Amino acid sequence: MYTLLFILGAAAVVYLLVGSIVLFRKQQRENSTLDKGASMTTVKHPIAANPIFILYLTLPLLAVVLAIIWIAVTQ
Predict the structure, then answer these.
(1) With 60 as the cut, is the pLDDT of residue 48 above it?
(2) Which UniProt keywords are listed (predicted)?
(3) Residue 42 and residue 28: Cα distance in Å, rounded?
(4) Which of 2, 22, 34, 54 is 20 to 30 A from residue 65's alpha carbon, by CA?
(5) CA–centroid distance for 61 within its chain
(6) pLDDT per residue as tens digits for the range 8-46
(7) How distant is the alpha carbon of residue 57 from its chain centre?
(8) Going by C-beta distance under 8 Å and a sequence separation of 6 or more, which residues neighbour residue 1?
(9) What is the DSSP letter of 40?
(10) What is the rounded CA–CA span in Å between residue 47 and residue 26?
(11) 3 state SS of 65
(12) Is 14:7 a contact under the CB 8 Å cutoff?
């Protein structure tokens, strides 16, 4: 049961991450002057400096850690 939930969650995260990257690159090509007041860090590293991508990486890891703690405590 836990394996199936993990696989579904991982698939959802990968699907959303790939979809976001595709959409981001499409918008970047179409609207090159969309963010006029963006910082130089965001301009140099548009994916790494994006807080949504940071959430995509940290929230699943946090969920896995909390699930491991929960399973360890309940058993």
Answers:
(1) yes
(2) Membrane, Transmembrane, Transmembrane helix
(3) 12
(4) 22
(5) 11
(6) 878 887 887 888 788 777 776 666 555 566 667 666 766
(7) 5
(8) none
(9) H
(10) 13
(11) helix
(12) no
